[in-house]
Specification:
- By secondary structure, the chain is mostly beta strands.
- It contains 2 helices and 11 strands.
- It has one domain.
- Strands 1, 2, 3, 4, 5, 6, 7, 8, 9, 10 and 11 form an 11-stranded mixed sheet that branches.
- It is globular.
Length: 171
């Protein structure tokens, strides 16, 4: 019994990896309201892509509650959905339906110090490869659908300086 107690105590004191399954990649913010679209990367316990279509998106309904999420509707998929996911090695390349000209490449690497996976999403921002952090969409509410005025991309350069980079796309 004493031996079993020592084993259990050891297991409780050892730091166990806190492997994530859905890792946050980037977010789309909109002028319409505070709700956001959050993009996630699905990985296994070794930080490898967990499927042939590992990128997904959900609404974060911040106007209701910081914890509340909801799936994208069929209509939302036309604007914020993910297009053409291609998995190679431990990377996935994809685009957003409303921003097809920008390919995004995402992956995750293990972080042994914390026992987690570190996700990363790369895309071209203003002519340079950058880590994509967020996208902002300015719209005018019109019937039957909103008109996109501009889209801003925000990120950091992948070089050692990690300089902030932005790009405005006007449709």
């Amino acid at each position: 019994m004493k031996y079993m107690g020592m084993i259990l105590l050891t297991l409780l004191l050892l730091p166990l990896p806190a492997w994530s399954k859905d890792l946050s990649l980037f977010v789309i913010q909109r002028s319409k309201n505070a709700n956001e679209v959050h993009y996630h990367l699905r990985v296994d316990d070794r930080c490898h892509l967990a499927s042939g279509a590992p990128v997904s998106a959900v609404w974060k309904l911040l106007e209701d509650s910081p914890e509340k999420t909801e799936s994208l509707s069929t209509f939302d998929q036309m604007a914020y959905g993910i297009e053409d996911q291609t998995v190679a090695d431990n990377w996935v390349s994809f685009s957003l339906k409303a921003l097809e000209q920008k390919r995004i490449k995402a992956s995750a690497t293990p972080t042994p110090q914390t026992g987690t996976c570190a996700p990363i999403a790369h895309t071209d921002i203003n002519g340079q490869v950058a880590i994509l952090e967020r996208i902002y969409v300015q719209t005018e509410e019109k019937f039957p659908k909103p008109k996109v005025v501009y889209i801003d991309l925000f990120g950091k350069s992948v070089d050692a300086s990690h300089t902030p980079v932005t790009e405005r796309i006007t449709p």
